[in-house]
């Protein structure tokens, strides 16, 4: 069965918390501006300028269907953000969320029964959908919005064989380190601006007798995926984006000097008995610690640092204040220098299977800064890479932090590597061999085993 792990992994990360609605209530504790439940009423969204959509003709009474893996409760702010467009144009948006989206959308496309629009969570799936011959290129209005408001790196992920198909929708940032603001203030710790400073901070904390880092990579059948994010972050920082791109495409071997340098760099933290596993055990305990629980020792003072994505905020109890002056917060995982800003993350892309005027009009809206800011006003736990997104519209502090990172002019964004590699590597050997590495396997054997798993 074909499974796209980019969004699967995010849903794995959010599953427990979403059942309690925590993603939508997190910043209610951190910011009194947030309405109860994490979404604002649709009436809070002002009418939009209809001019960009009049060029598509009379759209009243038309319908546009959307198919997506974004389901309850995350679908509520999605639907709310469409209402100004529906009121402006007279178009009705038919929304269908499906947990089996990643397999079913491909089946539907191949069978000739695709939706008008699909929210595709991963560039690899986007490429496979384009290969069915049923997808259509994005209209010029969408391309213009993306050229104006997104970086070239984001446009490249929506491009297949030199043709632009899909504008970015939402985004997440994985290059974060969680910490306790109170601990940092009480001890005079400074947010590190380089990898060298991060190592110095880790040594400083370890010198007090405390293990600074806590980590966990257990996730059922997906055990090992958090380790891949660690390695990808370090690969970007130690080798640069060009080498990273070659590594994904297997233009350089998985077990080459670049990958060796990256995994050994991770090992300076995760295989260091002086650094881990704060509040949880020794180095090997990382393999058996559920990733959703791994950062919680920060709240008890048992560890100081935890590398995990923006979506990790959902795993803290709703009574926890997630903010710069709260119980827990995060900082950007720094690059080798203060001027280098590599960012590892993920996101969704809007792919069309129809080119009717109403579909083009809605694509144009979704690619606009107008939609990004409307979505921000009714959401928590969501962010866009749109450069015109007003951070002030984001009521969740972690969302605001993520947006600032993405909007940094020095930022170089790269999509999660294992999500772009063949499944035999990215969601099999990489996960399993990474877990074996944590429990004692050496770097050379680990990387060679993954290299040997690459399809011939």
From TrEMBL:
Residues 1-30 form the signal peptide. Coiled coil: none annotated. It comes from the Bacteria. Keywords: Signal, Transport. Belongs to the bacterial solute-binding protein 1 family. This is Carbohydrate ABC transporter substrate-binding protein (CUT1 family). It comes from Actinoplanes italicus.
């Amino acid at each position: 069965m074909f499974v796209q792990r980019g969004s699967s992994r995010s849903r794995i990360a959010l599953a427990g918390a979403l059942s309690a609605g925590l993603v939508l209530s997190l910043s209610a504790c951190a910011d009194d501006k947030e309405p109860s439940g994490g979404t604002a009423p649709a009436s809070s969204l002002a009418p939009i300028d209809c001019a960009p959509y009049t060029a598509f003709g009379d759209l009243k009474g038309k319908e546009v269907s959307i198919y997506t893996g974004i389901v309850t409760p995350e679908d509520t702010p999605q639907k709310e953000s469409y209402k100004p467009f529906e009121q402006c144009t007279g178009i009705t948006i038919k929304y269908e969320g499906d947990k089996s989206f990643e397999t079913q959308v491909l089946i539907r496309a191949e069978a000739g029964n695709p939706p008008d629009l699909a929210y595709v969570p991963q560039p690899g799936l986007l490429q496979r959908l384009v290969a069915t011959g049923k997808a259509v290129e994005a209209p010029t209005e969408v391309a213009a919005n993306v050229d104006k408001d997104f970086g070239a790196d984001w446009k490249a992920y929506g491009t297949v064989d030199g043709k632009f198909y899909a504008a970015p929708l939402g985004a997440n940032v994985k290059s974060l380190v969680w910490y306790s603001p109170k601990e940092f203030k009480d001890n005079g710790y400074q947010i590190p601006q380089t990898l060298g400073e991060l190592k110095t901070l880790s040594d400083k904390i370890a010198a007090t007798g405390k293990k600074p880092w806590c980590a966990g990579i257990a996730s059922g059948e997906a055990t090992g995926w958090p380790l891949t994010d660690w390695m990808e972050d370090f690969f970007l920082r130690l080798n640069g984006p060009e080498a990273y791109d070659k590594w994904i495409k297997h233009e350089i071997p998985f077990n080459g000097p670049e990958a060796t340098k990256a995994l050994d760099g991770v090992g300076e933290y995760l295989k260091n008995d002086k650094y881990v596993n704060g509040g949880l055990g020794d180095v090997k305990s990382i393999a058996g610690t559920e990733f959703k629980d791994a950062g919680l020792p920060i709240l008890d003072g048992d560890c100081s640092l935890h590398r995990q994505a923006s979506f990790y905020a959902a795993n803290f109890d709703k009574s926890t204040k997630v903010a710069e002056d709260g119980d827990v917060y995060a900082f950007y995982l720094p690059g080798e220098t203060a001027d280098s800003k590599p960012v590892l993350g993920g996101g969704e892309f809007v792919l069309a299977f129809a080119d009717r005027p109403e579909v083009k009009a809605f694509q144009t809206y979704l690619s606009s800064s107008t939609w990004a800011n409307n979505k921000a006003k009714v959401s928590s736990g969501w962010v866009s890479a749109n450069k015109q997104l007003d951070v002030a519209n984001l009521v969740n502090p972690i969302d605001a932090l993520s947006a600032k990172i993405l909007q940094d002019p020095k930022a170089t964004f790269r999509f999660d590597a294992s999500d772009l590699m063949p499944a035999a590597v990215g969601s099999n050997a990489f996960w399993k061999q990474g877990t074996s590495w944590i429990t004692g396997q050496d770097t050379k054997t680990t990387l060679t085993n993954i290299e040997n798993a690459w399809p011939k």
